[in-house]
Batch of 2 targets.
Target 1
Amino acid sequence: MTDASYKYSSVISECERRVTGRRGQNLTLPCNYDIKTNGPTEVCWGRGPVPTSGCSDQLLVTDGYNVIEETRVSSRYQLKGRLDEGDVSLTILNATEEDTGLYGCRVQISGPFNDEKHHVNLTVKRDNAHKPHPHPSTHTHKHKLTYIRASTSGVSN
């Protein structure tokens, strides 16, 4: 008789934020990870929700240390933060109304289903000549932490 058992535990972290700014501003979409715990790791930014793997409508990818230039779809997309401190926030230069929408940042953490997913809803408003230009604003609206546990055991003769 053999006894087989399998246990699995996973944590998926998702965070959604909102950034609002005006046309022509440089707008930064926040994304950070704990580099002390995870070390430098690959990160990708894309438009739309972060899928099961990779990034949808990919904008750029890092190797953990630098942006992989051949993955950058436009020079308007920059990482101006300290990658060596886990700041992989995306800056969109000279934002336009067409930039409005959902963006996703995937931080690839080793192991199955360990990746961090950060979602940012960006709103770019038309410039209004009668109002002063406020600074862009960032608000955290939702943080979702999902625990997945599965356990199976079986006995065979």
Target 2
Amino acid sequence: MCGIDCTNRKITNTRRKTLVQGLQKLGFSRDSMKLATRHKNVESLDSYELLREQEQIGMINNLVNILKENKRNLMLIHLILITIIR
């Protein structure tokens, strides 16, 4: 096309991640992503891929539960301190 040979150029990790996530959003298979990024196996794409929706929901739920528990603990500590001070 433009006369620039890009076949042997190294793709940086940031660009690989962007490429993998873009291809993932477009619905490309992991094999296609492997070929595009020059990975030797599809498992090596794991660190570049977006989290699946269920994984994201699970992580958010865990975070919410931790925050709720911390709030309860802080309220309990507050009540204990008020009792001690009086």
